[in-house]
Amino acid sequence: MAYDITLTDTTTTAIMPLTEVPLTITTVEGAIDVEPLSLNVYTDFITQKRIWAHTWAYMTEQEYISLVGFYNRQFTLFKYPTISITNENTTNVSVRMVMTPKLIIDNCGTVQDVSVSWRETRQLGS
User: Fold this and answer.
1) Contact criterion met (CB below 8 Å) for 34 and 41
2) Is residue 94 assigned to a domain?
3) Residue 55's domain spans which residues?
4) Were both Cys, which of 17, 47, 64, 78 would link to 111 (CB 3.0–4.6 Å)?
5) Cβ contact 97:118 at 8 Å
6) What is the spatial distance between Cα 79 and Cα 1, in angstroms, rounded to a whole number?
7) pLDDT tens, 99-126?
8) How many beta carbons lie within 10 A of that of residue 118, not counting itself?
9) Residue 20, C-beta contacts closer than 8 angstroms, at least 6 positions apart
10) What is the pLDDT of residues 61-98, one digit of tens each?
11) Closest to 117 in 3D by CA, of 94, 99, 91, 103
């Protein structure tokens, strides 16, 4: 089963194949446990959001430039990119994107250990 991440913003769309595993998916709860004097616990369930994370062992300079472009445009366009992941029931979800520092390992511009996380969120200005 192949997994591809499709990133989209107002300027472009890029498909980033996941050539390595794992793709980590974490659920963040928006819930509060309340314990009144009776000591019975009840929970206010508000929402759930997801965080996806992936590390590419190696990327070409062009692949890295494409990926970091989405990260940088969050700040220049004031809009989050959207993510779609094949086989994960994830389509056009607004995400806050975070990347690790760039580690160039040769004179061809190959970048090593590119880690990215995408946190589901509401679109800026919505």
Assistant:
1) yes
2) yes
3) 4-29+43-120
4) 64
5) yes
6) 31
7) 999 999 999 999 999 999 999 999 877 6
8) 25
9) 55, 56, 57
10) 999 999 999 999 999 999 999 999 988 889 999 999 99
11) 99
